[in-house]
Design brief:
Elements (H helix, E strand, L loop, with lengths): L1 E5 L5 H11 L9 H11 L1 H7 L5 E8 L2 E10 L4 E9 L2 H17 L4 E7 L3 H8 L3 E9 L2 E9 L1
Parallel strand pairs: 4-5
Antiparallel strand pairs: 1-2, 2-3, 3-4, 5-7, 6-7
Helix pairs in contact: 1-3
Length: 153
């Protein structure tokens, strides 16, 4: 039985494993130094440090005892939150993780969630399919644009 629970430090190792796996074969569009920074941050010690931030809003999808997905974001000012990462084995798990994140934001009286994605990554289509609206592009590197999305909740 799969369930969504609040992420804790005990999940840091598995979240790190997910993120590092995602970084194994990055698109050549990403500058090498950018991927190296992401890899450094994705180490378990970097993930553990994130749990010290009181504005962290993170959940994991657990199947029996195994993490099969997660979502990580932060409360920001002005009643909004930012999603930094969402990953799951199945699309439906991503949906459930996002819905749990939204529910938590509503409980904290937030009214907007923002996120970013890259055009060639799965989350770009995922966020659009979940009702996020494109707001702007940001040039990150030559031939690499970050797309920004938001949803009012």
């Amino acid at each position: 039985m799969m369930r969504i629970i609040k992420a804790t430090k005990s999940h840091a190792k598995e979240i790190s494993r997910w993120m590092l796996s995602d970084l194994e074969n990055p698109s050549p569009k990403f500058p090498k130094e950018m991927i190296n920074r992401f890899r450094e941050h994705a180490q378990e010690k970097g993930i553990l440090m994130e749990f010290e931030n009181p504005k962290l809003n993170a959940f994991v999808a657990i199947d029996k005892t195994k993490v099969v997905g997660f979502i990580v974001g932060y409360e920001e000012d002005s009643g909004k939150a930012m999603i930094h990462y969402v990953a799951a084995q199945k699309y439906e798990m991503k949906e459930r993780l996002l819905n749990r994140f939204i529910k938590e934001c509503k409980l904290k009286n937030m009214n907007k969630i923002i996120t970013d994605a890259f055009e060639f990554r799965d989350n770009n289509e995922f966020f659009k399919s979940m009702g996020f609206v494109f707001t702007r592009k940001e040039l990150i590197a030559k031939d690499l644009e970050m797309l920004w999305y938001e949803i009012k909740i």
